[in-house]
Amino acid sequence: YVIETILDSKTESDVQLFYIKWLNFPHSQSTWEHEESVPKFIQLFYADRNNLGKPLPNPKLKRSKKAGSETYHYLSWDGDDSDGQWYHEDFFTLLGEDGEISSALETVESCNTRKSRDKESKQTFNFFFNFIF
Fold it and tell me: What are phi and psi of 88, to 5 degrees?
């Protein structure tokens, strides 16, 4: 299942719940899901209650940087850098039904020059960034 939009959110017993409209399913099949089932970057977009019910825009990672052994990524929505922010790579982890942790990022190697020292590793969103159940 792929998240189309989050329609509502609430807190019960100190647990955040999200009312999810699933892609290609009618509203009648929307479900309340625990915060652990919704990637943090999706929670971030819907933290602004004005976004509830709006389709999830395309997230863009414009840059990545290392600080010591830590990696951070600059996240913006639909390429709008004006409201982007830096997040630790743990921000992009997903928890699967089986309890396995995976990443919403995949590494893509690219090189626009012939010199190997100019090669850079770019982080891009895996197109299955929406949590799949």
Answer: -65, 150
